[in-house]
């Protein structure tokens, strides 16, 4: 939907009106046939139609383009009243800057910032409302640190609140201790499994080394026996040589 034409000061060119809602263009788009529309209006129209609402020429969302620069400039220069005029705002500014003004306008209706409060109040009166709002919160004057609503002042009991807080802290601490305990047990169990696995690997390596050593001793004994045999043969050959 566009801007209500009744808000504008002076004459508004027909070319700056939306061809669908007939209000002043808001976030405008232009069809190839040069008819202009508010973005929301033309998108809503094309959900059920496939042509221009003015001349019935076929159009598609992909064919829509931004407004010509000179038309955009003319649009931005239009002067209009703040939408909070009915609440007392007398500001008149250009369409280009109206959004910025209305975001900061003292006559804008804004919600109370206190949780639970449904009051809508003018921005300029917000501070005064917050000072008396029944949902405003403050810290207990007795020093317990509890934040309470004004409506709960008569029901507030420092001892009860502190006892509740203590119970919550105790429960939280117990939970954290249990979590730490479970985590530590999990880590110890994981380390235990790792050590058992490592021990098994080392035991296998030791058995393999023992087997290798046994084979080496057997080879050494064989070599020693062969050496004795060779020495005996040499001695026998020496005796035979002497006899000859």
UniProtKB/TrEMBL annotation:
Q: Where are the zinc fingers (TRAF-type)?
A: 101-144
Q: What superkingdom heads the lineage?
A: Eukaryota
Q: Note the PROSITE patterns from the entry.
A: ZF_RING_1 (PS00518), ZF_RING_2 (PS50089), ZF_TRAF (PS50145)
User: Which N-terminal residues, if any, form the signal peptide?
Assistant: none
Q: Where is the RING-type domain?
A: 18-56
Q: Which residues form the TRAF-type domain?
A: 101-144
Its BP terms in the Gene Ontology are: regulation of canonical NF-kappaB signal transduction
Matching Pfam families: zf-C3HC4_2, zf-TRAF
Name under which the protein is recorded: RNF41 ligase
- This protein's species is Vidua chalybeata
Q: Which gene encodes it?
A: Rnf41
